[in-house]
Amino acid sequence: MLTHTIHDPKLLHKEIVSSHERCRQYGIKSSSVQNPDQVMLTQDEFTQRLKLNSKFFEIATAQIEEIYQFVAGAGFAVTIADGEGYLLEVVGDEEIMQHLATGNCLPGYRWTEKDVGTSAVSLVLKRRIPVQINENEHYCKRGHGYTCSASPVFSEEDKLAGVIALSGRANQVHPHTLGMVITASKAIENTMRIRKTSDNLVKKNNYMNTLINSIDSGVIAVDKTGCITQINNQHGFSWNIKHP
Q: Apex CA 81: angle with CA 79 and CA 83, to 5°?
């Protein structure tokens, strides 16, 4: 399935039904509002995970802060998870933040299906597609009364870098919310690709400078218009350049 498309509701319903079946097989209690056995990182582990995901986290944080500016005061929260489902950041209005905290929706907790049942984040992690989960489409009671839209973010190597999600009261559900999250995820991917290209260009430039300066003779490089682009640093090699 396409990774940045709002899919047909019937198709998404089938995905949700399949997720519920997996949750039953896992033995997850649908009445749960908090999983006491949910996987959680120690502070040191969380710090290491932030370092491991530093590039994605930096870009995604800037993006969700921008999203939150549009929904601040409307009862929404925006979440970042890494590619393994560990929450890295949650930003939102006080009321919904308090509710999310009671269900372990906090940085450091893992949000896979085995941890929290069917949720927008856990289903994205499992199926790698954008989803919107509403009311009792959440397998566990913790999500009832709420809606969440989430979208995957892929690295330059097309691996799952993480998930971003936007949560609010169920009566605020709207397809545009999912569209907003998908747009944000694509923006994150584009920024990561641009930064990688820029980093590669810097590395290549540094390599060429090192190579040119290692040559004993004087070296000059020009572009296709004849303009000088590089000169090495050999002693006794000077240029009398006259400016117009």
A: 155
DSSP secondary-structure letter at 122?
Answer: H
User: What's the pLDDT tens digit per position in 40-51?
Assistant: 999 999 999 999
SS3 225: coil
Burial of 61 (0-12, 13-18, 19+ CB in 10 A): middle
Q: 3-class DSSP state for residue 4? A: coil
| Spatial separation of the C-alpha atoms in residues 140 and 23, rounded to whole Å | 9
Residue ranges of domains in the chain: 9-197
Find out whether 101 and 94 touch, Cβ atoms under 8 Å. Answer: no
For 202-219, write each residue's pLDDT tens digit.
666 666 666 666 666 666
Answer for the pair 81, 111: CB distance below 8 angstroms, yes or no: yes
Superfamily holding 9-197: GAF domain (3.30.450.40)
The token pair at 174 is 């709207």
Residues 129 and 152 sit within 8 Å (Cβ to Cβ): yes
125 backbone dihedrals φ, ψ, rounded to 5°: -60, -40
